[in-house]
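Please, structure for the following, as C-alpha cells.
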Amino acid sequence: MSGPAFSHDLRQRQTQNLVLAPQLRHSLKILQVAALDLRSVIQEELQTNPTLEEQPMDGESLDKITASTPETDSEGSSTTPSDDSGRHEEMNFDKQFEILGKMDQDWRDHMASAGGAQPHTAEDAEKRQHFFDSLVNETSLQEHLMQQVALDDLAAPILEALRHLVGSLDDRGFLSQPPADIALQTGLPYETVLEALKLLQGFDPPGIGSQTLAECLLAQLKSKGRADSLAARMIRDHFDLLSRRRIPELARKLGVAADDIQGAIEEVGKLDPAPGRRFAEDNNRVVVPDVIVEKDGDEWKIDLNSDYIPRLRISSTYRDLIAKGTLSKEERDYLSERMRSGKFLIDSIEQRQRTIERITREIIKAQTPFFEKGVAHLQPLTMTQIADIVGVHETTVSRAIANKFMKTPHGIFDFKFFFTTGYQAESGANVSNTSVKEMLVDLVSIEDKGAPLSDQELVTKLQEKGLTLARRTVAKYREELGILPSNLRRDYK
C-alpha cells in the first residue's frame, strides 16, 4: 500500500493593497470634516507642531491665508525648507485625490472579480440598516451625568437646576447659555443655578459644564493637582497668546525660558478641549451651514463659512532660528520637517475651501430651478456629473460633501440632498425623486378627505403630469414620506 504523495510547487499571486501616505490621509480628513469639527482638527495640529501659530481673526477670508504665509521673503528667497524629502507633499491636491480615487476603483474592481464584493439589493440594505438600528446605543453625555446626579441626595430645586444645566450642554460638554438665562427660563433663584453649576463642574469628566475653553482646560489641570502650574498660568493670564502659540512673548511675560513654555504647551496639548465628545453623539445638534448661498442681483453669491476655521501661518521665530545656522543638524531637520508639515496643513485647508466652493458653484448651475423656485424643482444629479465638470474624481466629490450643509433661500440642506436619481417626464424634462415626493405631498394635501386617493389613483395623477411610475414605487415613496394608506386617511365625518 503506497503512502500519500507529497509535492512542492511555486505559485505567484498578485494582490492589491490600498496604502495612503500619512499626509494624504490627513488632507482627506480635513476635506471631509465640517467647519465646526475642522477647528478641533486644527487645534490638535497646533498643539503638536511648534512652528505653526494662529493669526488673530479679523474677518478676512481664508483665501488671504496665502498672503500671510508666503513662499518667499521680501528678498525673494525661499522661506520654506528646500529639502528634497518634502517634494512629494507639493503634489497638486486634485492629482492626489485623482490617484486615490483610481486606487479605490481598482480595489473595488479587484474585489468584484475575486468574488469579494457582491452587489447589494434594496432588501440587503434594509437588513443592514435594521442591524445597525438594533445595536445597543452607547451612553450619552446626558445619561452619564444624570447617573452621577442620582448618586447624591439633592434638594428638589438643586435637582431641577441640574437637569436644566445638563440639558443645556452642547456636544463639547460646554454650557450653551449663561446661568442667568437658565435662571430666568426656569424661574429658579440665580443662586440655586450657580450652586447646581458648581456641583455639575465637579462631575466626571473634568471640564464639563464650562462656559469657555480656558475654563475647561483649567478645570482639568485642577483635577490633576496642577492648578498652580505654568500651564495653568498661561491659560489663566495669557490665553490669547497661548492660542496663537506666541512662545517668545509668553516667555517674556511669564519670565521663564522658551523651553519651559514649550513644555507647558505640550502639557496643555494633552488636555481634552471637548470632554463631552467622548460620549455618544447627540443627534439633536444645531446645524451650522458650511456654505451660504444667496441671490445677489441676477447672480448667486457663495459665502464659505470660515468663522470657525483658524487662520494659520508658519512662525517667523523658527524660520529665523534655521536662518541663523546655530542649530544642530537634528534640530534643523526636525524644524524643517515640522515647517513642511505646517505648510501642508495650510495648503490642505486652502484646497478644501476651494474644492467646496467649486462643487457648490456647479451644484447651483445644475440645480438653478431649485434655487429659484424650491424643492419641487430639484433636478436629478449625480456626483459623477459634478466630478467630470470640476475635474476631480467622484470620490473627491463624495468626501468634499460629507458632513457639509448649505444654507439656501429655501432652508438648510445637507449637500447630499442635491444628489438624487430621477425620472424623465414625457416632455423630456428630468424630474428628481425628491421632486416626485414633493408632488405626492401636494396631491395628498388637496385630495378629498372623504375619498382619499389610492396609490393607483396617485399613479394616474402623476401620469397626467407626464410622469410614469409603477404603483409599488408610489407606495414606497408614500411610506417614506410617512403618508398613511388611503383607507387610513379617510375622514368619515
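The first strand starts at residue 52 and ends at 55. Residues 329-366 form the longest helix (38 residues).
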